[in-house]
Amino acid sequence: MAKPSRQHPDDARFDDEFLKKLDYLYIVSRKMAASGQRAKRQKKIVGSGLDFADYRVYSPGDDVKSLDWRVYSRTERLFLKLYEEEEDLHIYFLVDASRSMHLGRPNKWNYARQVAAALAYIGLSNLDRVSIIPFSSKVEGRLPPAKGKAQIFKIFNFLDACEAGEHTSLRQAFKTFVSQNKRRGLAVVISDFYDPDGVEEGLNALRYHRFEPMVIQLFDERELNLDFHGEVQIVDCETDEARDITVTPAMLKAYREVFEDFCTELEGYCKSRQILYFRAPIQQPFDELILRVFRAGGFLK
Amino acid sequence: MQWTGLPIETVLGVAGFVAVFITLLYLLRLRKRRVQVPYSALWGRVLAEKKRQTDWWRRFKRLLSWLLFMIIAALIGVAALGPRSADEVVEGRHLLIMLDTSASMGATDVTGGLNRFEVARTQALELLGSVGGDDRVMVALFNNRVQPLGPFVRETQPLEAALRAATLSANATDFGQALSFARDSLRDRGDAELIVLSDGAGLQNLDLSEFDPGEAVRVRHIAPGERSENLAITGFNARRYPSNRLDHEVFVEITSTFDRPVEARLELMSEGRIIETLPLELAAGEIHRQFYPGQAFAGERLEARVRVTTADAEDVFPLDDRAYAVLPQARKLRVQVVSTGNLFLEGPLLLNTHIEVTRINPERYDPQAEFDVTFFDNVAPPLPASGDLVFFHPPAESSPIAIRGVDDKPILTDVASSHPLMRWINLQDLNIARTSTFRREASDTAVASSFGQAVIVDRKLDDRRLIAVGFDLRESDFPLRVAFPIFILNIIDYLAQDDVDLMYAFETGRSVHIPVPRNTGEARVTAPDGEVRSAAIHRGEAVFYTDQPGFYVLTPGGEEPVAVAANLASPEESRIAPAELQLGEREVGRDAEGLVFERREIWIWLVLLAMSLLLLEWLTYNRRWTE
């Protein structure tokens, strides 16, 4: 695994200026929440709360204290009475740290860190439990769930210390993630989604384990406006796979079309499964992306 | 097809190297530049679209590029071989280009506002530019002498530079000398060609049928010139009357080469001022000769000009419209007569107003007195310190020329009629009672002799002359004859060197020899155009070359300057009608047809084709039609 290079002027800086920007974003997010743009999503679990929620058939081993004897008297069948219980929202930021995210300067990794930090700050400010999980083909360590605004510096330090991973494999990484995290919650996936095996299996793994995925696709416009032409050998930075091609203007145009198709496919997949989807070039200021996320409302309680 | 370029072994070697080099470059070009991309799968999709193109086509496109380069290399290789068509003559020739720089080539009758020389020079330059690479060329200028610009050479660039620097002369043409030079230069040269660029002025009356340049030599004569209208002063001279040194007689010869009658005006000028204007009417081709007596000139420089006054006539050769002459300075001679009294001798001297005569009795004779000429009558005292000497009947014991004997009944049998003393007179029937005969030395000239015994002797001393007459005037009938005063005048003119023969007028293109005082170490000459150059001193004469018509001024050391006139004075040269060179039975070409080395430079087209293919390859490669 390659170590991150030394700090560069184009790298993300988690300094006071960045914090001020996050505070500003937080205020904006509260205004949006107060103006009715509240999220539909509410984290409620059925447990030992006070508000009645539902019944379910008794199973051996259930707490007999929750049996509804009135129902038993009428139906002679054992039903458990379930109550709603509110719990802190768990937000997992699954940040792609594969090599493709580290290509170029500035690169998508820096941008992803800024986005993750900003959203994490909003979450911390809302007293959510925020966890950062870098991944590539596997989960590259994790920041345990943190709560409270003061934890933002932990997040900064953790993101600063993250190193580049291997190739992208959403399926492998998210399988590991769902097996390690039993607490369901919002899973914000920040990635370029350059996975040769496709993204569906990985996102489905989240969905099937009752995580609520949210997709933020990053791309670099420089990857579309290539500055080379003629006879070249392109090498995949993650797989080292090489291809000899002759780059012509027509080919560049075809490449842009293929990329657009790629993004459209991902967006279509997300929309068809009611997954919030955002696409942003890293040349766009990250706070604009954050505001877009706010406007979509999926991130706010 | 024949090959005149590099040896085929060399070309094949170089071509092989180039082929290997191109192939290496081609292979190097196949090594693609590596570019790292984040996700090559997208390119895979793009390439999937391109899969319609089959692999063999892609390989063919690459091969096509290589093939283009190989064709380009092959074309350049063939170009280096110097391909020529089989019927093209590529053997080197020897070309001798002779360019006439004589005065008539200055005629402006050719179109374009040029003169004949400039036209001929342009033709010569064109010839130089069109010769083949194996040809050897010599260029020679000629007028009345030949000036080669170099030996036979292949490289014509220096010749072109020398040719551009060549200038027109004011000399006549010596075709005999020029053709002799050509014959000697082309002798034993294979495939030789003589090209004479000359208007042919001077060829009209020249028989060159005997000239044989050699069997292998082809001769061409290219003659610029279109018209013959010219009015020229072909003769101009002036002489002073012996009796009156202030009056002159002028002779002018004017030649018209117009083919119709023209009117003209002759102007006589002295020291730049017109002193006489004479109208002329000249018939077609007339040679007008005329004496103009009684001309009084104030100076020593005479000039004659002739101008056509007919309105629609144009003199296309102005160089010979002027002629120049120099008169000797007219000064009074100081003459001393040492005699006891001889009216026969004193009479002719006293009658001449340009002579200052002093009679001295022998007893009062002073050898230190300075006179131009001293006559001794029947006396022979010590010689004076300066001046020329004339002795009449010197005494035997003191005679400056040894007396051989006395002839009591002399008959003058031999008279040197060409001697200046004898001009216009005849002494054959002179009656002399008695005369002394002189013992001659080697340098003496016997002007008159009696049966081999010298009676009148002319001797040259170191810096003066001595004339001795053996008889007493009173013992002959010589003083009673008309010839006697002329004889005395001849003596004066001869000793004073004031004869008309000494009026210095020369033809241009000649080396002029002018006597200079003894011990003169250097002399300068000022040419008519103002250029000052030094004159060589050889055996008491200043020698310099005249190449311009006009007045040359010779200044020998610190002495008085001497003016010399130079004229074209060549009737042949003034007959500017173009004439053709005739060499008997030999064929002489009249133009440059076939002379220009028309090489079909195939190699140029091959190189252009190679460059076009290179451009095509560049275009197709940049447009990705080829790989």
From TrEMBL, chain B:
Residues 92-270 form the VWFA domain. The chain crosses the membrane at residues 6-28, 63-82, 602-621. It comes from the Bacteria. InterPro entries: VWF_A, vWFA_dom_sf. Gene3D superfamilies: von Willebrand factor, type A domain. Keywords: Membrane, Transmembrane, Transmembrane helix. This is VWA domain-containing protein. It comes from Lujinxingia sediminis.
